[in-house]
Amino acid sequence: MQLEQVSKVAVIGAGSMGAGIAQVCSQAGFQVSMRDVEPRFVEAGFRRIRDPLAKRVERGKMTQSELDAVLARIKGTVDLKDAVRGAQVVIEAIFEKMEVKRELFGELDAVAPPDVVFASNTSSLSVTEIASATKRADRVVGMHFFNPAPVMKLVEVIRGSETSDATTAFAKGLAIRLGKEPVEVKESPGFVVNRLLVPMMNEAFNLLMEGVATAGDIDKAMKLGTNMPMGPFELADYTGLDIGLDVMEVLHRETGDPKFRPSPLLRKYVRAGRLGRKSGRGVYDYAGTA
Ligand SMILES: NC(=O)c1ccc[n+]([C@@H]2O[C@H](COP(=O)([O-])OP(=O)(O)OC[C@H]3O[C@@H](n4cnc5c(N)ncnc54)[C@H](O)[C@@H]3O)[C@@H](O)[C@H]2O)c1
What is the pTM (predicted TM-score) of this model? Predict the structure, then answer.
């Protein structure tokens, strides 16, 4: 598939990432289909797109007709065939579970013409293993967008073991067309960003557990000492402690390296349901701020 041939992108999954990716694709001028498993999830995806853009309209940063045009290019559906019809590329952003992704990729392989490129937004799973559920492993690639997708500039383009040079080049070109900056990464646990960032957050939990400093002071030290916009605990609470623990478990399991052992304190908080902002409490308390 050549980038110039792309007119429609099918986005599968209308959650935080899928809706954001659909918005990015629409804003780049592509026709977009956004598929989820139930109409209410598709509707929630549209709300995720509409609400922040409506605020931009209120603030005079966007016109109502621009907002209407972004939404008009996105067609919601629960029908996979319908979503894929006429699309040259599919971007998957469904649950981070290998069995679920493999099942979807098998279904996609059956309904999409053979030259359609499949990209997965997985943040930790093996693209090689996802691709092996299809008969087009050379045309399957990782495109790891960051949250929130409309704002964050980076896309890690992940090469599975069978991903072809042409597919990698296509994915990098597509990321640029979407206004993003691609970085090519060979498949490896955590890719680049999570391999560096999540162990740093994990180590912050060890510091806290050892009583070396308070949570507030650890965040303050990293913000003022390294110019990070958010401290490690603010970031962990924002992205979800359970997500951080999942990444540490993947790094630990896949490499067998003890340096990736999840912090016992991180594990304890997750077991207590302290998942961060989304559960009202993580390292910090968000009661009343939701
Ligand atoms: N949240 C993040 O910060 C982040 C960042 C980068 C990558 N990711 C990755 O993006 C993917 C999605 O994450 P998310 O945070 O948007 O999850 P989410 O839970 O917000 O959304 C997932 C959506 O997928 C839908 N879904 C499940 N099975 C489906 C199927 N077969 N067809 C269509 N839709 C289906 C669910 O109904 C749900 O709406 C995961 O692979 C995750 O690892 C997440």
Answer: 0.93
